[in-house]
Amino acid sequence: MSRYRTLFLFLLLAAVWGSAFMAIKAGLGTPTGPGGFFETPVLFAAVRYDLAGVLMLAYAVIVVDDPIPRGRDEWATVAVGAVLLIAAYHVFLFVGETDPAVTSAAAAVIISLSPALTTGFARAFLPSESLTAVGVAGLGVGLAGVVVLTDPDPGNLLAGGVVAKFLVFLAAASFALGSVLTRRIDAGMPIESMEAWSMLGGALLMHGVAYGSGERLAEVVWTTDALLALGYLSVVSSALGFLVYFDLLDRLGPVEINLVSYVAPGFAALAGWLFLAETPTPATGLGFLFVFAGFLLLKRDAVRTELARFRGEPA
């Protein structure tokens, strides 16, 4: 029964996080649509984490003895989380998704490169971790997948959403770098508290970016789609999603939980097709295969160990 529960939670998390890309597109709206956050994408991300941060902090108060960060290392962890894991990641992602060429599935595939990029950054910032020749090849294969998915036109590199897809790539790189730096600091802070304070700090930073770029809440036309998307992203994708993530992290460990990134694009494509009439292109599927192959090369030893453990064999 426990194995079925774990599988259910794994698929639930993949569905919740995969469909989040569709919810972002729906909440942003279009240049010619009746409303949404198309003109204020950074503000959209900020308001999302105002709500999600408050919910996560309330949860941290319940489950953590002392939810307030203490000491330089814990505050440094929160700062890295706020700047990279929340603010930079979501600014790049939300602005990138304003381009119609960046479908829900395409964004999810590019973000799925994050575990591979994490391994690459770990080599630079964590001396105990290094990349073999096969690992370097795996990182290269993953990056090639993003190039395939982007499908740049050499005659016009600004066409076809290339810049927007590069912004989504920067989102994946920001999240990967933030993950490595929080591991380097290793403050031993409860992850619930770290996520809550990072969300609130990241929301504050995004409000600053939004204000500096001229985005104002008065510009938002509160359509039903915008409200539903905001609620879904704040409550379901963020608050509920991270609760499921914490549970699975304890059950599966960091290697298996990374596989959520490779199941999520399927749910992103399905949600985009059902709700936004998006049709994934062959480049999206081929790019995903490259990214996943790169992950398998980078994590081949860990994957082999996890498979042996799953089959009950000696590692």
From TrEMBL:
The alphabetized UniProt keywords are:
Membrane, Transmembrane, Transmembrane helix
The record's subcellular location field reads: Membrane
Membrane topology per the record? Multi-pass membrane protein
Q: Which InterPro entries match?
A: AA-Vitamin_Transporters, EamA_dom, EmrE-like
Ranges for domain EamA: 7-149, 166-298
* Keyword flag Transmembrane helix: yes
Q: Which domain of life is it from?
A: Archaea
TM ranges are: 46-64, 76-95, 101-119, 131-150, 162-182, 194-214, 226-245, 257-276, 282-298
Q: Name one GO cellular component term.
A: membrane
**Where does it primarily localize?**
membrane
Pfam families (alphabetical): EamA
Its protein name is EamA family transporter
